[in-house]
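Hey, quick one: can you model this chain's 3D structure?
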Amino acid sequence: MGLPLRTYHHFEGGRAHIDIERIRSFADATDSDAHAILTAVLIGAPDFAAHTMDNKLVSVLISGAQRFDERLGDRLTRIEVARFIAATRRMFDDLEADLSQRDDEARRWLADRFEPGD
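Sure thing. Here's the predicted structure for all 118 residues.
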């Protein structure tokens, strides 16, 4: 990010001023998710940005929220927080189940091709 090491450590630890343009520049240069970097700082979870760097999770969520807002407008205010929580849980549970299924399929595929004794 073009920062001295100490400044970077302060930034990563949430003790430095957040320069959004610098974060965007860093994200562009590294093909990472600027929204995820900012979210990682806000939630105090530095690894979150690394975990979502390639799949752009937070940018996708923000894009979806923007589209949702454009479609619903004022009607969005009528959705209770419990509905958002339930919908979000379903979405993440579905993604986790899909990932588990793909992991199982990959393990079976490898086991079929590389059985002991071959």
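One thing worth noting: Residues 80-118 form one domain.
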